[in-house]
Amino acid sequence: MIENKKVFILGMARSGYEVAKLLSGKNNTIIITDQKDQEEEKIKELEALGITFIKTGEPESLLDESFDVLIKNPAVFPYHPCVEKAKDLNIPVVNEMEVAYHYINKPVTIIGVTGSNGKTTTVTLIYEVLKRALVPVKLGGNIGTPLSAIVGTLQDHDILLLEISDHQLIDMVDFKTNISVLTNLCPTHLDYHGSYENYKSVKKKIFNHHTKEDIAILNAANYDSLELTKDIPSTKYYFNNDENYIADGKIYIDKKEVIDTSDILIKGTHNYENILATYLVAKELKVDFQYVNEVLKEFKGVEHRIEYVNTVHGVTYYNDSKSTNPTATITALKSFEGNIHLILGGMERSQDFHDLTPYLSKVKCIYAIGETRKRIMDFAKENKVEAYDFTTLKEAMKKIEEKVKPGDIVLLSPASASWDQYLKFEDRGDEFKNIVNHLESV
Predict the structure, then answer these.
(1) What is the per-residue DSSP string for 276-298?
(2) pLDDT tens figures, 293-314
(3) 78, 182, 370, 421: which could form a disulfide with 346 (CB 3.0–4.6 Å)?
(4) What is the strand order of the sheet 340-344 is part of?
(5) pTM for this one?
């Protein structure tokens, strides 16, 4: 716990705001910095708690040896000048979730879900199942609610269910789960971590401090996941193996059929893998599979993940803004037969769009946006795919209106982070949906 300390919070957003409030009133001196303007109401609330907010593009100029800890927002790169200076000064660098973990003072079961793709769908399914089974559960982490905002609400024997990203895991030290789910691994966020090896080693932290008493749920069909976890001491349960698998349109757990995929609203092999992981969590918690089945018959999917938006003049629009790497976009492309108008691009992170090449036969036209648009245009030209480039999504949508015909699919699946133009991928998806929903429906 952090008490009687001088605390430097790098980056506000919601996690910085919540952890500042958590640490107030404990005789801590707290400053929080961000390069962007923040909501005036929140600033006033923090000031009333004795917390100082400073807007600055050079936070490192404010950091000195008098500080005891630096709490880094997950979006801040690990080699940010302020982080480097903290290390030079031997100031510990942690994040909001690591700090909040030390304020859990109730006996709870912590479930952490991570992976390159599928973690949001998986954690949401688990949450809906536990709620349906009347299991006391709190949901937070990367999915939206910082742990700092939850710890004060925990009761004895609650399930604490957390989506945990690599950006959060990188600054973990003592944080530990009781059950960890790793959906899969593929190269992504390499600009943030420097290499795929570094990225994988960070993901492995989801199993930190595990013993044989702790559970790891793993994807047996994902080689990198198996290699990464071969030496962890956790008790391991696998999906996509010869016991828990998908075959002939049915899902099997312990070699027994549990549901026909025709009864499941969300489709696609990627979703069925997320569902397998959900069944295994339910099994570990002794939750009857009937609750899983009930949820699967109603669950329409996660917002911004291959989300049906509308059909306009016979053209169907899907929002897949959550696809921030090529592997996720491949999953989206696999979900359709063809006639796709694909919106690609966003923040430059050295992502390899060539991974999409085997699926371009489904694509009628590419609309390149954001920082990566020139590279995408080169990629399209190499593969003889019609393409246009635009600075913004709004500009691209005007061109799409001119090009589409009844029976076509418009798919926003950028294979890129949104931070070149948006605070978060949800904002990009919301803009897309807003544009589509203002078109004349039929």
Answers:
(1) HHHHHHHHHTT--HHHHHHHHTT
(2) 999 999 988 889 888 899 999 9
(3) 370
(4) 307-312, 315-319, 409-412, 340-344, 363-368, 387-389
(5) 0.83
